[in-house]
Structure of Glyoxylase-like metal-dependent hydrolase (Beta-lactamase superfamily II):
Amino acid sequence: MIRSRWLFSITALLGMLTLQAAWSQNASERQVLERAAKSLGGLERINGVKNITLVGYGQYVYQFGGGNIGPEVNAPMKYQAANDMRRVYDLGNNRFLQQERRNFLFPFAAVFGHSYQQVNLFLDGDVAFDINREGKKQRIPGWSEGVLQHDGVHMRRMWMMNNPVVAVRAALAKGAKLSNVRSEDKSKVVDIQIAEGDRMSMAFSDQSGLPTWIRWNNPHDNLGEITYTTYFSGFVPYGGLMLPLGYVTKTDWRNIDYLKVYVDDYIIDGEIPDLVAPPEVRSADVPASRVLRPLEVESIAKGIWRINTGTIVFEFKDHLTLFELGGSRHQAKAVIEKARSLVPGKPVTEVIVSHAHFDHVAGIRQAIAEGLTVISRRNNEIIFQDMASHRAKEFPDDQDRNQRPLKFVPVDERLRLSDNTMSVDIYWARANIHMAEAIFAYVPAAKVMVEGDIATAAVDYQFWADNYMDNIEYYKLDVETLAPVHMQTMKQAEVLEMVKGGVQRARERCAAELAKGNYFPGCPVVSKRF
């Protein structure tokens, strides 16, 4: 009898596995989504829920992983806190609120980075708008490629779809299109175009039917395009729904954990704030996604100009050399054209890049696409190659279309660029705690120094104050004028006065935080000079 029961159990188990395997091989896209709906609480419950509020906290990686102390893949990441987090999903009205307080968890030179500034990002159908500090509601562009976070209608809708209940409900709604069901790593993957036209892919566990991840793409200044994949973990019951307690959003570039969200609570069908776009916002024109800054040029010395976006131009006998191409890829294209116009007939052939932080290299793909040689600290070739080779198939830029290889000239301790009309010395910015692989330029004839983030990261705080004069004295330079990337041109006395004030303000902030029992990053401020 025992043997018979054992054989019956084995037969039943094999039958169940066979049925599951058959389902796994033959299930249609809609069957996969309907099974997911059942696993999440049932289609009727999913369609009946009015709203969901997520309460929690999280962390973003700084500059998508492009703002680290060094360019190596394994360099430690810097993070931005996202505290007091709320995600409000108004499913009945197709509205969404992304609310959090952001604060950098490392020494940042500007006050706003350490302010726990509240962010209120709304989406009402196809209308995305913000509420600023003064309480004014402002419509925002459809696309925004910021160096810290991407934004716009598409990104807000994708963040809304990051809730698996919301995503499955949208995928099964009228107007959605499902396609290309396939098997990947013990999951079923389905491509989805929701009714609004946004495209994404979702994976569902073969075993449980629950969603395991959601994936989508967005343009990216530094990489051409980036693929986000949000993984769900720890499903637990809330109000008749199964919802995850953990979200990790990874990027396809270097497999970085871009955003981690930790859930403290879900509120189902509770009171929610007013998410309606007011008439004046809804009727307003959609701001342009790509607004180029009008370009102005300042003559620094003979053969040296500063473009107001932070690019410095050096004129040699038969070519022009740029220092830095930040801002955005679109701005970089305009800057290159502006530089060419300064000396008609002379080509722009190379760009000196101070360091590899993403706010300083947003135009590097454009430079490579136009055939410019990149000059930078030797180890930066690692990250520049990763950036140049990254594909942008859904949102192609000039580099993806041209697929030009990186042409790179390394700098170790010093490199001189010189002909009989111009000499530019490039030096390693030794012992800078903000950027280990940084360089700066010096023109001996004009006594002009050009730098990014050594003395001029921001006016507010100076956490690496001595590095500017340490390098000038080490290399025995005679600096009269500083042409920085982030600030206006200054005389040497003005630079030192600014740095001194930044040290004082940083020390005052450190003392104020310590008095509250907070051990602030960057404190105490280390300076032997100020």
